[in-house]
Amino acid sequence: MTTPPEISHSDLRQAVTASLERPQALAELGSLYTELDAQLLDAVCLGGGACCRFDLAGHRLFVTTLELAMLLQLPPAADSAPLRCPYQIGPKCHSRGYRALGCRTFFCRQGHLQDIYEAYHAKIIELHERFGIPYFYVELTAGIAECVASDE
Question: Rounded mean pLDDT of 82-109?
Answer without folding.
Answer: 82
